[in-house]
Design goal:
The complex is a heterodimer of chains A (362) and B (286). With 362 residues, chain A is α+β, with helices and mostly antiparallel strands. Chain A contains eight helices and 20 strands. Helix content of chain A is 21%, strand content 36%. The model of chain A has no long low-confidence stretch (mean pLDDT 91). Chain B folds into two domains: 9-73, no CATH class; 76-280, MetI-like (MetI-like fold), CATH 1.10.3720.10. With 286 residues, chain B is mainly α. The chains are: A alpha+beta (362), B mainly alpha (286).
C-alpha cells in the first residue's frame, strides 16, 4: 500500500526547531497539501519524507516501512521540485528516461514509456530539446513527467505551480489533479498558495512555526478553523477577527460587546461563560448590510469601497476596527455613509483567550 | 536573444578591427620575423616585403655554430616535450584534485569554510620571488631539484588554489535541486557527481584548464632555477639562446616563439566555445 506516515517527527537546525513533533497520515490515493507561510517548516517536512534531510527525532514510514535510515534513492519516491530540477545537459526525452536507469529496462520499453508520458503531458514536440530551450510551462510538465514515468510508492510536490503565470497555473492545477486521481498514490504537495491547496487537496495540513496547526478537509479547514491562525490564514479576503467580550449567555442566545456596541446573536457556546474575553470571527462573505439598526447589528462608517468585478469589498470602520465585507456589486455604498451590519449567526466563529476555537456544542 | 550579425554597423566594426590589430601586432611581428633572414630581421626601417625563409625554424632544432662546422642538435625537441609534459600533467593533476576539493567546499562546507578558502588563496598572494629561496632549498634537500616530479608538483601546487576557487564558483552556481532530483531518481553520490554535476561544469573545466595551461606554459622564474638540463622548459631554453657570437639572433628567437605560441593557440581555439560559456556562466541560466 502506498502510504506516508509521520510519527512525532522533529527537525532541528542547531537551536532552531524547524519542524516540531509532526504527526501526519497520508493514505493511498490521498492528496495532502502542506500549507503555511514561508519558513513554517513545510518544505523541510517534505524533504525529510524524501530523505534529503534527516529527521532529528521521530519515525517516517513509507508504505508502512520505517525509512529513516534509507537513502533517498532507496525510498522509491518521485518528487517534483519548485525549480523543476531538470538535468540541464540532457534532452527532455533523456530527462524523462533518467529515473528508469535503475530499473534495468530494455531500450524499447524505455522508449515506449517516454512516449506514453510525453503524449499524456503534450511534450512530444519538445522531446529533443534541452531544458534551457523550453518555456516555463513545458519545463513544469517535463518535471511532472519525470516523476510519473516510474511507478513509485508516493509523490511529493514542492510548490509545483509557483513559477507559472496565473493562466498556466489554473490549467496545470486541473491537469495535476486529474493525473493524481488516476494514480492512487499517497501524495504530498507543499504550497503557500491557499487556493492551490483548497482546489487540489483531499486534506490540508496548515503549518506555522514548525507546528501542524490543523489537518482537515478543505471544507472543514474553511468552515471550522481550529484556532486564530488558521482562521486568519485561510480565506480571501481575510476573516474579520475582532476582540470582544461575552456579556451574557442566555437560552439560545449570546450577547457580545464589540468595540463599544452591543449585539445579540441567536447562538450558544456552552464552553463559555459570561464575562469572558473572546475573539469574534466572521468571514467577509458571511455578513450583510441592513437598512435599519437592530439588536443583532453593529454600525460603522464606510471607509473604503473596492470593486472586485462580480462583488465589491467594503471596508467598514467600526470604532478602531476595520471590518471587511464582501457584497454583491449591485449594492452601492458611498464612502462616509453610516451602515448597519448583520452577521450570519451560523457562520460566526468564536475563539477563547488562548486563541482556540470554541465549539457550538460541548 | 541572438543579435543580428552585422547589427553594430561599419563604424564600430572598423573601430574594433583597429583595436584588435593593435593587440595582435606584436604577435604578427614575431611571426613575420621568424620567416626573415638575419639581415632582413635587423633591417631599419623594417622590411615588409622580403623573401621568406625556413632557415630560422631549422636552426631551432639544429644549429651550425660559427666555430664548429657541423650542425649541432639543440635539444629543442626535448624542451618542447618538457614544456608540454610538465604543463599538461600539472594542470591535469590540479584539475582532478582541485575539482574534487571545490565540490567538497561547495557542497559539504567545513566549519570556517571561508577561512580555509582564504588560506588557500593566500598562497597565491606572495610574489614568487619571495618564496623562491626556501623552495629552492627544499628542492635541493629533498632531491626534487631538476626532476620532472619536482617541477610538476610545484606547478600543481601553484595551479591548485586557482582551480579550487574557479571550480567552486562553478559548483556554487549549480542548482542543488538538480542533485537532489538525481538522488531521488536512484543515483548514488558518485553518479550525482560524475553524471549530473560534471557535465554541467564542462565549460568551467575548460576555462580553468586554459588559464592554468597558459600560466604554467609561460612560467620562467621557477623553471630557470628548478629544472635541470634534462627537464628544461622552452622559456628557459629560449632565454639561454639570446646570447651568441653574432649578437642576438632575432629571427631564431622569433621562430622559437612562433612554435611556442602554437600549442596555446590550438588549445584556446579548440576550447573557445566552452571558454565563452565558462566566462558567461551564471549570467544566462535560470
Amino acid at each position: 500500500m502506498s502510504t506516508i506516515r509521520l510519527r512525532k517527527v522533529t527537525k532541528r537546525f542547531g537551536s532552531l526547531v524547524a519542524v516540531n513533533r509532526a504527526d501526519l497520515d497520508v493514505e493511498a490515493g490521498e492528496v495532502l497539501c502542506l500549507l503555511g507561510p514561508s519558513g513554517c517548516g513545510k518544505t523541510t517536512t517534505l524533504r525529510m519524507i524524501a530523505g534529503l534531510e534527516d529527521a532529528t527525532e521521530g519515525d517516517i514510514l513509507i508504505a508502512e516501512q520505517r525509512v529513516n535510515h534509507l537513502r533517498p534513492s532507496q525510498r522509491d519516491i518521485a518528487m517534483v521540485f519548485q525549480f523543476y530540477a531538470l538535468y540541464p545537459v540532457l534532452t527532455v526525452a533523456e530527462n524523462l528516461a533518467y529515473p528508469l536507469h535503475y530499473e534495468r529496462l530494455a531500450k524499447e520499453e524505455i522508449a515506449k514509456r517516454v512516449k506514453r508520458v510525453a503524449a499524456l503531458l503534450e511534450l512530444e514536440s519538445v522531446l529533443e530539446r534541452t531544458p534551457g530551450q523550453l518555456a516555463e510551462g513545458e519545463k513544469q510538465r517535463a518535471a511532472v513527467g519525470r516523476a510519473i514515468i516510474r511507478d513509485p510508492n508516493c509523490f511529493l510536490f514542492d510548490e509545483p505551480l509557483s513559477r507559472l503565470d496565473i493562466e498556466q497555473r489554473q490549467v496545470m492545477r486541473g491537469q495535476i489533479k486529474e493525473l493524481l486521481s488516476g494514480l492512487s498514490k499517497a501524495t504530498v504537495i507543499v504550497t503557500h498558495d491557499q487556493l492551490e491547496a483548497l482546489t487540489m487537496a483531499d486534506r490540508i495540513a496548515v503549518m506555522r512555526d514548525g507546528n501542524i496547526e490543523q489537518v482537515a478537509s478543505p471544507h472543514r479547514i474553511f468552515t471550522e478553523p481550529t484556532n486564530l491562525f488558521v482562521a486568519g490564514f485561510i480565506g480571501t479576503p481575510r476573516m474579520n477577527l475582532v476582540e470582544a467580550a461575552l456579556t451574557e449567555t442566555g437560552e439560545g442566545h449570546c450577547r457580545f460587546e464589540l468595540g463599544g456596541q452591543r449585539v445579540r446573536l441567536p447562538i450558544t457556546r456552552p464552553g463559555l461563560s459570561a464575562g469572558s474575553r473572546i475573539t469574534f470571527g466572521v468571514r467577509p462573505r458571511a455578513c450583510e448590510f441592513t437598512s435599519e439598526p437592530g439588536d443583532d447589528t453593529i454600525s460603522g462608517t464606510v471607509d473604503l469601497v473596492e470593486p472586485m468585478g462580480a462583488e465589491t469589498l467594503v471596508h467598514l470602520l467600526h470604532g478602531e476596527q476595520d471590518l471587511r465585507v464582501v457584497v454583491d456589486r449591485t449594492i452601492r455604498l458611498a464612502v462616509g455613509e453610516q451602515a448597519h451590519l448583520r452577521f450570519e449567526p451560523e457562520s460566526v466563529h468564536l475563539f477563547d483567550e488562548s486563541g482556540r476555537r470554541v465549539e457550538a456544542a460541548a | 536573444m541572438r543579435r543580428q550579425i552585422g547589427r553594430a554597423g561599419w563604424g564600430w566594426t572598423g573601430f574594433s578591427a583597429v583595436v584588435s590589430f593593435i593587440y595582435f601586432f606584436p604577435v604578427l611581428w614575431i611571426v613575420l620575423t621568424a620567416f626573415k633572414a638575419h639581415t632582413d630581421a635587423l633591417a631599419i626601417p623594417p622590411k615588409w616585403i622580403f623573401t621568406p625563409t625556413l632557415e630560422n625554424f631549422v636552426s631551432v632544432f639544429a644549429r651550425a655554430y660559427i666555430k664548429g662546422q657541423t650542425a649541432v642538435d639543440t635539444n629543442f625537441d626535448v624542451y618542447f616535450f618538457n614544456s608540454i609534459f610538465i604543463a599538461g600533467s600539472s594542470v591535469l593533476i590540479a584539475l582532478i584534485i582541485g575539482t574534487l576539493a571545490a565540490y567538497g567546499f561547495s557542497r559539504y562546507p567545513l566549519k570556517g569554510n571561508n577561512t580555509y578558502l582564504f588560506i588557500i588563496l593566500t598562497t597565491r598572494m606572495l610574489p614568487p620571488i619571495v618564496v623562491i629561496i626556501p623552495i629552492f632549498l627544499m628542492f635541493r634537500v629533498s632531491g626534487l631539484s631538476g626532476t620532472y616530479l619536482g617541477v610538476i608538483l610545484l606547478y600543481t601546487a601553484f595551479n591548485l588554489p586557482f582551480t579550487i576557487w574557479m571550480m567552486k564558483s562553478f559548483f556554487d552556481e549549480l542548482s542543488p535541486e538538480v542533485e537532489d532530483a538525481a538522488r531521488l531518481d536512484g543515483s548514488n553520490g558518485y553518479r550525482v557527481f560524475f553524471r549530473v554535476c560534471m557535465p554541467q561544469v564542462k565549460a568551467g573545466l575548460a576555462a580553468t584548464a586554459v588559464f592554468g595551461l597558459i600560466l604554467t606554459w609561460n612560467e620562467f622564474l621557477f623553471a630557470l632555477l628548478l629544472t635541470g638540463v634534462e627537464t628544461r622548459t622552452v622559456p628557459v631554453a629560449m632565454a639561454q639562446t639570446i646570447g651568441g657570437d653574432i649578437g642576438v639572433r632575432w629571427g631564431l628567437l622569433a621562430a622559437i616563439e612562433t612554435l611556442f605560441l602554437i600549442p596555446v593557440v590550438v588549445v584556446v581555439y579548440v576550447l573557445q566555445n566552452h571558454l565563452l560559456r565558462g566566462v558567461t556562466f551564471g549570467t544566462i541560466r535560470r
